[in-house]
Amino acid sequence: MADIDVQVAQWKLVEVGRVVLIRRGPFTGKLAAIVEIVDHKRVLVDGPSTEEQKIVPRHVLQLSHATLTHFVIPQLPRSAGTGPVRKLWQKNEIDGKWAKSSFAQKTLSIERRKNLTDFERFKVLRLRKQARYEVQKAHAKLRAAAPKS
Predict the structure, then answer these.
(1) DSSP 3-state assignment of 31?
(2) Where is each KOW domain found (predicted)?
(3) Residue 12: CB partners within 8 Å, gap ≥ 6?
(4) How far apart are CA 9 and CA 91, in angstroms?
(5) How many whole angstroms separate alpha carbon 123 and alpha carbon 131?
(6) How far apart are CA 112 and CA 65, in angstroms?
(7) How many CB atoms are closer than 10 A to CB 66?
(8) Close Cβ partners of 55 (under 8 Å, ≥ 6 residues apart)
(9) What is the chain's pLDDT, residue by residue, as a tens digit (149 residues)?
(10) Where are the domains of the chain?
(11) Mapping DSSP to helix (H, G, I), strand (E, B) and coil, where does residue 68 land?
């Protein structure tokens, strides 16, 4: 028989241990882990972050208010208490992995741009103009050096 390589789909499934980003409610923008699946629309989440301002207390969350991430806490038992979740959260360095993810970095840059003062926005405008001018100058040199046909 032929060697067939079967790979598991890389979908973000709703499963115990999956890390979610909360999009609505009082904990918007914070991470939590799915501890138990209540039904097809709700999950029990717990977010024992290492940073005080990022802690999410254990509560039931609608899946429509959450974004599933690629991060999973492996071997998290169903209905685990906050203590075991915190230990596995720290062991798997979820906060560090999240900070390095492109989604978190993009969100951080958007937030930073929102909080710019008028003068800082002006400086960004000038820097972008300078960069655009340098790119156009390099492009013009390449066009001039290209053979004419």
Answers:
(1) strand
(2) 13-40
(3) 18, 68, 69, 70
(4) 26
(5) 12
(6) 24
(7) 22
(8) 30, 47, 48, 49
(9) 567 776 666 667 889 999 999 999 999 999 999 999 999 999 999 998 878 888 999 999 999 999 999 999 998 899 888 899 999 999 999 999 999 999 999 999 999 999 999 999 999 999 999 999 999 999 999 999 988 76
(10) 18-104, 116-145
(11) strand
Amino acid at residue number 77: P
Strand, coil or helix: 37? strand
What separation in angstroms does the CA of 25 have from each of 49, 69, 131?
18, 18, 40
3-class secondary structure for 70-134? EEECCCCCCCCCHHHHHHHHHHCCHHHHHHHCHHHHHHHHHHHHHCCCHHHHHHHHHHHHHHHHH
Per-residue tokens: 141? 């040199």
Note the pTM of the prediction, 2 decimals. 0.73
pLDDT of res. 8? 61
Q: Class for domain 18-104, per CATH?
A: mainly beta
DSSP tag of 148: P
Q: 126 CB contacts (<8 Å, ≥6 apart)?
A: none
Helices (H) and strands (E) in the chain, counts: 4, 5
For residues 59 and 50, give the distance between their C-alpha atoms in angstroms, rounded to a whole number: 18
